[in-house]
Amino acid sequence: MAKKFITVFNYGGGLRGIVPATMMAEVERRTELRMAQMVDMFTGPSTGSILNAALTRPHRRRPGIAQYKARHMVRFYEREARNIFPVDRFRDFRGLIHDFNNRTMKIGTLSKLFRHGHYDPKNLSNALYRLFGDAKMGDAISSLVVPIYNIAGTALEVVEEAGEDENSPAHTINNFRDHGGRSVWIRHLTENAHNPHNHSTIDVTLYDAVMASCSAPSYFPCHDFSAYDPNNNLWRQYHAIDGSVFDNPCISYHGAIRPHVPKDQDLTMLVFGTGYTNKSLTKDEWNQYGALGVVDPVNDYPLINIFFHASESALMQSFSEDLGDGNLFIFNKSIFDESNIQESLPSQQIDDATPENMKRLKGFANAILEENMEKLDTVCEMLVQNYQSKKEEEKTLLKRFKKNFFVTE
Asked: Where are the beta strands (DSSP E) in 131-245?
């Protein structure tokens, strides 16, 4: 039986990140191990990247151990929710005035005054810096993938043909690999991941990578940072927004996970959700929205919700079939599903920081687990076996090292 390569994907969703944090805390409680001890790779955008980076951040005083447990991250959301998303009844109004000003008067002072309708990014920045400090992406104790979307053209790759030099005429067509922004997976690969090109981790802090992946459009401004790329011996500039604009388990599987699974191992994916927010609509409901209604927050952004879920729904069947039976475990449900919910349903909004909603989100997480108890038992057993397999490999390597480098009398 082939050894498993276990990957965790945590969804984005703002403060709804307390849902996967609560579910992983239960996994850690049952197994009495930290997630990074049992999992080979962590992936996922936005609030998922906060969880992934925190669960793989090395301990300050205990080498090889993660600084945080999942239960610490539950506390993180409870403690920081109101700081990151303070109550702001005029945020939507500011955004409306800003957009109106952009379309008509274009008054610079007014634009600065209304702050584009964003939350103050300093609050999120401070919370993340307290969490990560100056730890680097390359310090993570498990393989880690942080998705961002780089809106800047400064990172575009110039197309060069054989024999070209700096004096060759410029191309008039097809002179760039892309003409706009691009999706980026910032990757850190540990020794147990397949890395045929010996890819090195770019020199970036966990703080910058995660802050970029959490810069949700209309909630926070884009995050700009520079990072040294040792693979190409150059500095790259990023103007990044939330990785959720392109990333989901299916996309990550094809673009960032599958290429790094060792050839002699079988991939198993654990997907921890923050609640599905897409809902069905009738023809009359859709037509009633009109041109602006499909992107109106009052209607819960129906068109944007479709964009976020369309690629995942299109790829899910082939994704599941490709992984094979028994290799995909999804812990998620619709945010509108009332089954097994003791309290009222939580809000689908990513910025609802009220104590009542945070309590409901934890209840929602427990409802997901209650509906998937048999699956949870299987996952916990599999994770413990993966941990034990890793420890046995370490012992074998240690014996081999001693045999080769030490002479016994």
From this structure: 143-150, 182-188, 223-229, 234-242
Percent of the chain with pLDDT over 70: 83
Note down the domain range covering 368: 4-155+176-402
The two tokens of residue 141 are 């104790």
Mean pLDDT for the chain overall: 88
- Residue 137's Cβ-side half-sphere holds a number of Cα atoms within 13 Å equal to 25
**For residue 167, is it within any domain?**
no
CB 25 within 8 A of CB 178: no
Instruction: Compute CA distances 393 → 98, 232, 365, whole Å.
Output: 58, 33, 35
What CATH number does residue 257 fall under?
Answer: 3.40.1090.10
From residue 116, alpha-carbon distances to 92, 121, 224, 379 in Å are 9, 12, 17, 44
| 186 within a domain of the structure (yes/no) | yes
What is the total count of domains within the chain? 1
**Beta strands 143-150; 234-242: pairing state:** antiparallel
Question: For residue 160, is it within any domain?
Answer: no
Q: Where are the beta strands (DSSP E) in 151-202?
A: 182-188
- Angle between helix 47-56 and helix 206-213 axes, rounded to 10 deg: 160
Mapped onto helix, strand or coil, the DSSP state of residue 205 is strand
Phi, psi torsion values for 39, nearest 5 degrees: -110, 140
How high is the pLDDT of residue 405? 65
**How far is residue 19's CA from residue 13's CA, in Å, rounded to a whole number?**
10
Contacts of range 177-180, beta carbons closer than 8 Å, 24 or more positions apart: 179/153, 180/151, 180/153
Please indicate, yes or no, if residue 171 is contained in any of the structural domains: no
Give CA angle at 338 (335, 342), nearest 5°: 110
Per the listing, tokens 């941990």 go with 387
pLDDT tens digits, one per residue of 163-213: 555 565 555 555 555 567 899 999 999 999 999 889 999 999 999 999 999
Tokens of 76: 């993180």
